[in-house]
Amino acid sequence: MTNRLQRSFLPLAASALVILAPRATLAQQRLGVPPGKGSFIRYCSSCHGADAKGNGPLANLLNQKPADLTLLAKKNNGNFPAQRVQRIIDGREEVAAHGPRDMPVWGQRFGEAGEAAGQPTTQTAIREQIQLLLQYLNEVQEK
Question: 75-128, pLDDT tens digit by residue?
């Protein structure tokens, strides 16, 4: 796939996931799936992999391999860097090593998904969704 085609495909694939994911995520949470796992699978696994190790099906299309999210605490002296991860997810902090931002700004995308579904999403709802993702990521950290 050409670089130009890759850049066109990624935003389209991410947008499709955002629009279709909310119902599936709620259903998974009702079935006893750990909080945040459904959101992670829907929004993050295409790049970071279902196991959060950076091996998702779109990983090879990116300029840099996605981070292994199970090592965040290990690389931070055993402490999960929740505030930094939140800023990366919601778009307030870019990861300099990535160059141009390949990862979607999920705070913005969560709001767009609600509006596309005819339900404007409040900032509180967006923060809650990000908190569920953070909770799940904290749970999958390697010890």
Answer: 999 999 999 999 888 878 876 645 555 666 666 777 676 666 676 667 777 888
Query: pLDDT for 50-82, tens place per residue?
Result: 999 999 999 998 888 899 999 999 999 999 999
Closest CA to 43 of 133, 135, 140: 133
What single letter denotes the amino acid at residue 41?
I
Q: CA 89, CA 81: separation in Å to the nearest integer?
A: 12
Q: Residue 59 in contact with residue 49, Cβ under 8 Å?
A: yes
Would you state the structure tokens that stand for residue 29, as one six-digit string? 């949470």
Q: Could you give the CA distance from residue 19 to residue 5 in angstroms, rounded to a whole number?
A: 22
- The first and second tokens of residue 76, run together, are 């931070």
**Burial level of 38, CB count in 10 A (0-12/13-18/19+)?**
buried
Give 94's contacts (C-beta < 8 A, 6+ positions apart): 88, 101
Please tell me the distance from the alpha carbon of residue 51 to that of residue 64, in angstroms, as a whole number: 18
Stated pTM of the model: 0.68
